[in-house]
Automatic annotation (TrEMBL):
The keyword Signal applies. The keyword Translocase does not apply. It is found in: Lysosome membrane. It comes from Climacteris rufus (rufous treecreeper). One of its GO terms (molecular function) is glucosylceramidase activity. Belongs to the glycosyl hydrolase 30 family. It is a peripheral membrane protein. This is Glucosylceramidase. One of its GO terms (biological process) is cholesterol metabolic process. Residues 85-165 form the Glycosyl hydrolase family 30 TIM-barrel domain. Pfam families: Glyco_hydro_30. One of its GO terms (cellular component) is lysosomal membrane. The lineage of its organism: Eukaryota, Metazoa, Chordata, Craniata, Vertebrata.
Amino acid sequence: TLLCPSGARPCIPKDFGHGSVVCVCNATYCDSLDPLVLPAPGSYVKYESSKAGKRLERSEGTFQSSLHTPGLLLTLNISTLYQHVKGFGGSLSDAAAMNILRLSRPAQDNLLRSYFSESGIEYNLIRVPMACSDFSVRPYSYDDIPHDYELKHFRLVDEDLKMKV
């Protein structure tokens, strides 16, 4: 039995034989959550999943100026920022595109909604590999002509035109 978090629909489990299950996304069902609400300053919201059955289990907490437990010292200085996060997302590789295109149109819509919509995890970025990657079924590039510095022979391939563009 998978634990259903607050705001999530029940999971349709599928076991692939590795000691855990995944929730099926198909034409009529895909995981979704209630819209996320930012926590108050100084606090956090955590979602946890586990092989033991936790599935997007929501918990809340507050940051303390420092936390010390045996073997762990975590100190947060929120006045010093090292980077700006533009967003979160994934990669649309050849393999990902092939799997998405094998789904029915309603299942594709549900899957993409679960990634990019307010009822999903709200990805706002996506990376598309240039030419082939380790998730392609064959090696290819866009211009294999030596010394073609003006890229006169540059061409997109079928994988790009049919699956990613």
